[in-house]
Amino acid sequence: MKLLSRRLLVSGALVLAGSTTIAQQPDKKILHAFNLNQVQLAPGSRLYEMTVKNVDYLLSLDGDRMLYSYRDFAGLDTKGAKGYGGWEWSGGTLRGEFAGHYLSACCRMYNQLKNTDAAKAARFLDKINYLVNGLAECQAAISAKKGADYPGHPGYLNAQSASQFDRLENLQSADVPFYIIHKILMGLLDAYNITGNKQALKVAEGEADYFSWRLNRVDQITLETMLNTRRYTGQYQGYFMEFGGMHDVLLELYSVTRKPAHLQLANKFSRKWFNEMLAGNEDNLGRNAEHSNSEVPCVVGMAHAYEITGDSMYKTGALNFLTWMEEGHEFSTGSISGKSAYPEPLDYGGELFNYPKNINYQVNSSPGHEHHNNGESCCSHNLNKLSEYAFTWTGDARWAGAYEKRFVNAVMAQQNPDDGMFIYNLDLKQGAKKEFGTPDNTFWCCYGSGVEAYAGLAEGAYFNDGKNGLWINRLLAGTLNWKQKGVQVTQSTVFPDNGYAKITFTTVQPTALQLHILIPGWAGKNASIKLNGTEQPIAKAPGSFAILNRSFKTGDVVEVNFPFSLATAPMPDAPQYVTVTYGPHVLVNTAAARSTFSGTEQALLQSLQPTGNPCEFTAVMGGKTAVFKPINRIKNEGYNGYTLISTPRPAQLTDVVTIGDSLSLAAHNLLAMYMGKGQFNGKSWIDAGVNGWLGFTVKVDPAKEMFLQCRYWGSDAALKDAVRLFDIEVYNANTGKYTAIATQYLEKQNPDNWYDVLYPIPVKLTRGQQQVQVRFVSKGFYGKPGVTGGLYDVVQVQHY
Could you list the residue ranges forming a coiled coil in this record (predicted)? Predict the structure, then answer.
């Protein structure tokens, strides 16, 4: 075996020659997570109780009902079982997906319990083995089918016909067939890797061999079209098919088997355009209207590919993507996904990317287009997988903090504390409400990722460097057993109800350790770390690791205290909406939708009064008392994810283009193609007709983050033969090209009212510049040409 040369690495997609495989790479991680069976959650703690609810649910599910659709399609006896409902309905196109999630969740619980609760671990192992055996029987029966139901080659395993892949390969509507295959493969590989079930590996290899046969018949152009998740590609929606983490799971299979065919298959799902976009640090996710939970698993695959191939392009791309998320796409909770910038049918409101920092439309949309969802839970779980990759590569506290923020506010908010059921979307819109599923008739994708995540709630808490370094990234009630060192670390804490933890050491013998404790960014300057009662004179900067070097012995106690404090932060593109936080918590208010606090951010903070419940406050909004509480404590009540205030922080104007003033237009170098102008409701307007554009030169502050504000008439809508759809672009002096900062669609966004929109301008476009060129460019949609505007009254350039 030999390491592939750079000549064989084509834009991030590995091209294999003959039987060539990849030599085992040196470990790319500088830090390693502890196995979950080394961390025991403290009985009675909140995470323990969440886990118990999940365990009870997993054990309540019936293997024969889970296998019903598989056996029914395979022509086998369904053993008198009745299939589950929801997405698992026997007539549905997503049936079969949950079985893979379920296998993975059961494997994770088995791994955690085998050293502490043998009886319950045995129950999980029985469920794993029964399901794997049932799937193996189905695979054999499907391979023996005759006629139209024969999938064409042995090895196919699914709960439905392979005809959906025929449609996919003909670029016809086919739902998400590879998404389902990914879940099946991942469950089987977890069964092999965690429990040693060799039958599971054999079934997984058979499935992979089938799809190797299948995809080797597909020409490259068709394959690239199948996997092109850019929903807007110019005029028409591109062909779209969510294919989950196929790249990632097939790389995992390759890492087990080391068979070149498995690597070749994996890399069919590694897309040249996507890899280049990420590695080149060009965030076009919003302009392409990409599907959030299609792309995050693909980036997890890139992270995995870096560790297998050693190609730093994958690492660069993955870290760039995480940076884009943190700096431009994440909501206050660390979650992502919502409404795109485009009209229906391309946009279906809830699961797509928008432009960086265009948060308001993603979360709240507009008064004329309400009631969509945002914050798909699967995205949060997958982003935390990616954050863990980044942390183990770099040791950077930034990624540890991102993980904690998302864990506390998105992951812990997903489960119903009464019955253990899960939500799909963690909405942050005005008038949001958690919509929990049911035990037998839901089985959304977020149910699957939920049962997996809640089978590993201790993840992300402890890491080591393989030597004497120990990292504590999260306050976690329970015990770490570092067997290799003969060290036990027990945390007593009620986090996240407060930021105090007592950390007690038990050692076989005095042991030299370098202890790293995450000081969260929210902890401020008053973080405290005591050793055996004495405050330690070590650096404790927020957003860093405090380091304590010493020989630890039994009875040593480290006490940490991170005081919680209230804070606010404005939504970047709508400062009238603010996030209220208390320590690690995002506080949402339970007032009626669009209730407004009368005053500024500072006045809001001063008005918040504690209720006596942990991390809970009240304030008067709209003349009524509203409760502010952690989003992870919301259950059945309605809430507003962001708080609306009457007096947002004031803008500082840098420049104003007055639409009705010819001198102002001339001073700003107005250029246009197919421009129209006029008066309406006492305000001047200009627009650009079919395939036209408008442009200005405006002043900016090179040291500030700048915003462009435009005014529209909220009743403007599509014309008979054109859509009101246009890009807003800023000239990039470094590249000599225009960069789109937003796409605006006008279709009765705020009927009978003026409609102001604030567009963040990326700092890289204004840094070092005294002025920039801005233009508004019409773009077509679904066979109709686009028009720009109208733009009314003034165009403002400002900062805060």
Answer: none
Q: Judge contact between 712 and 754, C-beta under 8 A.
A: yes
Give the separation between CA 460 and CA 516, rounded to whole angstroms: 14
Angle of helix 246-257 versus helix 198-215 axis, rounded to 10: 120
- Same-domain check for residues 672 and 767: yes
Q: For residue 761, what pLDDT is reported?
A: 98
Query: What residue has token string 């086919």?
Result: 174
* pLDDT bucket at 20, cuts 50 / 70 / 90: low
* CA 688 – CA 726 distance, rounded (Å): 10
The reply to whether 605 and 716 lie within a common domain is no
| Residues 694 and 758 grouped into a single domain | yes
Question: What pLDDT sits at residue 345?
Answer: 85
Which pLDDT score, from 0 to 100, does residue 263 have?
A: 97
Please spell the DSSP secondary structure of 259-282, one letter per residue: -HHHHHHHHTT--HHHHHHHHTT-
Domain carrying residue 573: 566-645
- CA dist 296 → 120, 300, 309, 318, 387 (Å): 34, 6, 20, 9, 11
Q: Are residues 575 and 696 in the same domain?
A: no
- In SS3 terms, 539-584 reads as CCCCCEEEEEEEEECCCCEEEEECCCCEEEEEECCEEEEEEEEECC
What's the residue count for the chain?
800
Residues 535 and 628 in one domain: no
439 touches 419 (CB < 8 A) = yes
Q: Which of 376, 577, 398, 581 is nearest to 499 (CA)?
A: 581
